[in-house]
Design a protein that fits this description.
By secondary structure, the chain is mostly beta strands. It contains three helices and seven strands. The chain has a single domain, classed as Pectate Lyase C-like (3 Solenoid), CATH 2.160.20.80. The longest helix is centred in the last third of the chain and has 10 residues.
Length: about 220
């Protein structure tokens, strides 16, 4: 397992959050919720801009295929939640954890991630292009065909992840460690790859992918 390049701050929240019914406490006209636990339910956020969750925990929650631009999350934990095909473009996340979540096709383009941890999540075909990520860790995640086009990554870790088909075009990978990850192909330029931390086997794979010829 890779050594963390930076310590990720944990979400800050009370130990005993009150369990609530989302429909009863969510006001579409003032879409802000704090200090709550939601579990074993389905949530429909509809098409709504600027929803905010602070010190909230979601367990086994399914989010419908909503369009929620400029979502704001601070001190939030998602456990075994389903976000498939949800549109969260321009999301802001601070001290957020995703554990065993399904984010297939989820769009978080132009998002700002700070102190965010994805563990054992499925992010296949997720769209994260143009995002800014600082102190972020992806651990045992499936990122096949995910889009990281033109992202700014600062102290971002990929540990034991599946990366086949991921798009890193336009994203500088200097000091980014992908040595423990698995992939057959990656979209990346030689310039973007400079300074990346890779295994010896991966280095040979990149030589082939970049069309270089090894002369013996």
């Amino acid at each position: 397992m890779n050594q963390l390049s930076a310590k990720i701050m944990e979400p800050v929240m009370p130990k005993d959050l009150p369990e609530k019914n989302f429909t009863d406490c969510f006001d579409p006209d003032e879409p802000y919720l704090e200090h709550a636990l939601f579990k074993d339910t389905a949530i429909d956020l509809g098409d709504r801009r600027g929803v905010e969750f602070t010190e909230v925990r979601f367990q086994n929650v399914t989010f419908s295929e909503a369009t929620v631009p400029q979502l704001y999350l601070r001190d939030v934990i998602f456990e075994s939640c389903d976000f498939a095909n949800v549109q969260f473009d321009e999301v802001t996340m601070k001290r957020v954890r995703f554990v065993n979540c399904r984010l297939i096709g989820t769009s978080m383009t132009e998002g700002v991630f700070e102190d965010v941890f994805f563990r054992e999540c499925n992010l296949q075909m997720a769209a994260l292009g143009f995002s800014k990520q600082k102190n972020v860790r992806y651990e045992n995640c499936r990122l096949n065909e995910a889009d990281f086009y033109t992202c700014k990554l600062n102290k971002v870790d990929f540990s034991e992840c599946e990366l086949s088909g991921i798009n890193f075009t336009g994203t500088a990978l200097k000091a980014i460690d992908i040595s423990s990850c698995r992939f057959e192909r990656i979209s990346v330029t030689l310039e973007d790859l400079k300074g990346a931390v890779v295994s010896e086997e991966q280095a040979l794979d990149f030589v082939v992918m970049l069309g270089l010829i090894i002369k013996k």
